[in-house]
Amino acid sequence: xxxxxxxxxxxxxxxxxxxxxxxxxxxxxxxxxxxxxxxxxxxxxxxxxxxxxxxxxxxxxxxxxxxxxxxxxxxxxxxxxxxxxxxxxxxxxxxxxxxxxxxxxxxxxxxxxxxxxxxxxxxxxxxxxxxxxxxxxxxxxxxxxxxxxxxxxxxxxxxxxxxxxxxxxxxxxxxxxxxxxxxxxxxxxxxxxxxxxxxxxxxxxxxxxxxxxxxxxxxxxxxxxxxxxxxxxxxxxxxxxxxxxxxxxxxxxxxxxxxxxxxxxxxxxxxxxxxxxxxxxxxxxxxxxxxxxxxxxxxxxxxxxxxxxxxxxxxxxxxxxxxxxxxxxxxxxxxxxxxxxxxxxxxxxxxxxxxxxxxxxxxxxxxxxxxxxxxxxxxxxxxxxxxxxxxxxxxxxxxxxxxxxxxxxxxxxxxxxxxxxxxxxxxxxxxxxxxxxxxxxxxxxxxxxxxxxxxxxxxxxxxxxxxxxxxxxxxxxxxxxxxxxx
Length: 486
Fold this sequence. Notes:
alpha+beta, 10-stranded antiparallel β-sheet, 6-stranded antiparallel β-sheet, 27 strands
């Protein structure tokens, strides 16, 4: 930072003062992230926006402690991506995601970063990659081994948090310092051919939330591939806007739509909802909805991409489909109608702006099942193609699974999955797995085959076979002396 007095800075502070404030802010962000999870969590679009400035600090900062902790945070965030991807496509629940990134997972900065760091996919220009390369950063070998190891399927649980809630924080919010946030409970099933992941539902990210998603390995061109399946309850309200932003209730929605034009559109595909509750175990998911009368967009949208094949609305009520190496079974609890994904014409039309750029490449040929029942829900059960003799064998197995649901007053469902696990969920209650309530209170910061950390640990202890790599943010960075190096 150049030396300058208070009269040369916009805020009336000197360079030293501004640098001190910035340092304190960065170290606070690191402490919060490694204790409670990232606020803008697991974003396919904004991963680069975090890696780029961290790269500059890790490569060029004069402050040794900040330089070293920036390098450690690069390892930390890259691990977060490496453990939840398939062939470079970031899977699971996301924050900060745009329509083109939802529909075409290969059009994301995270996919481009995966090429530089681990060799997945093909090169495509990415700003964050330039900073990473110029900084001299190289991921430790254990991260590449983790990123490439998909020999066995595994479950990855992670704790994240919402961005700071300014208003309408709600009874489930927690206090971190002098601010409020809500925990985000992430669950992902990672297979060599797909990633199926979710969060618990709710308003977890302003504007650009993906509560759950399914992505799979594909042979189609990565920039054109629509290798994804998901559902959304589109929600638009000043309540959400004022929850996360400082503007007034009567102007916030208009302000949001000036840059995020799809926010107040009924066919939007990125959204959280306060009327949604999701549970997942392994390769099965239950989602329940209790929408109020008179809501802005009282429907559920389930996205069926152009890459899906053999889609079949079965007499049993299940809808079967295939996405590359993956079989999908979707059981809606209420009827719906088929519509094109951009049925209002907003994003693909003349007013699509930057959000709709390139729409003809990524946004056409898809369809959505839209259900207008206020009390609603569905089940998703997936399985790798390799586990069954053919598609009919998968269908037969799913049709035989015990399933019950009710949409009387309060939605509820019980389902026995392909592996025999019994899932039960009732809207407003804690769901159960084989009769045992899901333990959200003790949800870990990380829990998977390569790391386990409790919340507030400020550590990440990675294991791969006999190899160990520890990121310990509780300790001051130790600078080697010349004598120690000799």
